[in-house]
UniProtKB/TrEMBL annotation:
UniProt cofactor(s): Mg(2+)
Keywords assigned: Hydrolase
Gene Ontology terms: cellular component: cytosol
Descriptive protein name: ADP-ribose pyrophosphatase
Highest taxon of the lineage: Bacteria
Family affiliation: Belongs to the Nudix hydrolase family.
InterPro entries linked: Nudix_hydrolase (IPR020476), NUDIX_hydrolase-like_dom_sf (IPR015797), NUDIX_hydrolase_CS (IPR020084), NUDIX_hydrolase_dom (IPR000086)
């Protein structure tokens, strides 16, 4: 057994939903004791940092039921079965913003909540936006409003906790780092 590895003894599947699967694993710990782990299985996601010609970042505001409030975030969405992250990124950009792009720059991938979920998010940047001539239908249960902010305005929104999610904060830090170079 690896230094910190937890060996799965048994898995109980609790829920198989549209977005996530929930399971409880019984594991053997490195010291030989057993414990239970509540796990969320997720197909993965993408996030896009869209930059306009006038150097504004396009955000979407949408209601987040788990938080019971709206958040201002960069566009993002779930990977569909067998879909490449770059394809998901363009699809989500089109659905959520009404823009498309032929140029994506890979920024990074990261685990969103590794303490209980396996979701891996892939982040891309584009500054080559083209408005769509015909609106693309998004998810029927998703309602968003576009907000364009400069980097300085976005940083102020972070201070005010109007931008308050990890992927969007990561995106703003990344853009700030690019500015410093």
């Amino acid at each position: 057994m690896k230094k910190f590895e937890e060996k799965t003894i048994r898995t109980e599947k609790i829920y198989d939903g549209k977005v996530v699967k929930l399971q409880v694993d019984e594991v053997t710990l490195p010291d030989g004791k057993t414990a239970k782990r509540e796990l969320i299985k997720h197909p993965g996601a993408v996030a896009i940092i869209p930059i306009t010609k006038d150097k504004k970042i396009i955000f979407v505001e949408q209601y987040r039921k788990p938080l019971e409030k709206s958040l201002i975030e960069i566009p993002a969405g779930k990977l569909e079965q067998g879909e490449k992250p770059e394809v998901t990124a363009v699809r989500e950009l089109e659905e959520e913003t009404g823009y498309t792009t032929n140029q994506l720059k890979f920024v990074t991938s990261f685990y969103t909540s590794p303490g209980f979920a396996d979701e891996l998010m892939h982040m891309y940047l584009t500054d080559q936006l083209q408005p769509l001539t015909k609106k693309v239908a998004g998810d029927e249960d998703e309602f968003v409003e576009l907000i364009e902010l400069t980097l300085e305005e976005a940083k102020q929104y972070v201070k005010e906790q109007r931008i308050h999610d990890a992927k969007t904060n990561y995106a703003i830090l990344y853009l700030e780092m690019l500015e410093m170079m």
